Amino acid sequence: MDVDDVFRRIVVYSTNVVNTKFFGIDYIFMLGRIWMDPNLEAQMPMATNARKKAPVPKKALHAGPGKASIHVATQVRAHKTREAILRAATRVFARNGFTDGKIESISSLSRTHDRMIYYYFGSKAQLFVEVLEAAYEKMNEAEEKIDIDLNEPVAALTTVVHFVWQYYLDHPEFITLLNSENLLKGRHIKKSARASQLSSPAVAILNDVLRSGVEQGLFRSDKSARDLYIEIAALGYFYLSNRYTLSVFLNSDLRGEGELDHWKSVITDTILRSVLLVLPVK
Fold first, then answer.
1. Nearest to 128 by CA among 78, 187, 200, 46
2. Is the pLDDT confidence value at 31 over 50?
3. Whether 174 contacts 240, CB under 8 Å
């Protein structure tokens, strides 16, 4: 029986036999964690002063290799549980948005318990913050792997454009998560302590590409990497996030055969024409 199973049993048992009017279920849940691993006590924001000041048991001070192994295994299981919740939350929020994304749906999909979600993340809002952070991190990690040759700025810029477009196609959840957060006027991402660290590496890459193009006399010198990135993102993001309504209004399936490749070429041509000193002749 692993630690999470023990937690579930403690919660169920406590709910049935303990007067939760005096001992809140969150407190009981916390005590179960501490009982399984005394080292977690210092991490418990809900712990009482008496519990915080309690001396560490001698057994914990002189824990042997076996105890250390159990502690490591517990941490590994906790990490896996947390990651499972994050993955499930990403799917639920991407499908239903923040408002309609239910904790019950997330716990069911992650095969955990509602209380475990609150234990690891504190609230639904904080869980959504971490889902957004993870989504940005995932894209940033992919952007850092973009392979370009700065000696060929036109080809390098084309590579970046194609990367962003393909990433949006491969990760539709990224677009729907951002749609949901923008409807809420960025309420959650503003609370992220790591927001300033999540700026796109692609902006720095584009800055290098533009500099190379200017030095070679190919690109305009008045174009900023930030503006160029917004152009690239906007041309792909708008098309995909509005494809359903646009398909109806334009009487054309924007994801039909050949349509995605066509728009990819439109984005590429538009971006290149916005930076080139001499426009290509068609």
1. 187
2. no
3. no
Question: Structure pTM?
Answer: 0.73
* Superfamily of chain region 128-275: Tetracycline Repressor, domain 2 (1.10.357.10)
Residue with tokens 């196609």, as numbered in its chain: 169
Helices (H) and strands (E) in the chain, counts: 14, 0
C-alpha–C-alpha distance, residues 68 and 66, integer Å: 5
Domain ranges in the chain?
Answer: 3-122, 128-275
Q: Which residues, 6 or more positions from 97, have their beta carbon under 8 angstroms from its beta carbon?
A: 176, 179, 180, 183
DSSP-derived letter for residue 102 is -
For 71-83, what is each residue's pLDDT tens digit?
666 778 888 999 9
**Distance from C-alpha of 201 to C-alpha of 174, rounded to nearest angstrom:** 17
SS3 readout for 124-167: HHHHHHHHHHHHHHHHHHHHHCCCCCCCCHHHHHHHHHHHHHHH
Longest CA pairwise span in the chain (Å): 81
Distance of CA 36 to the CA centre of its chain: 30
Residue carrying the six token digits 């930076």: 275
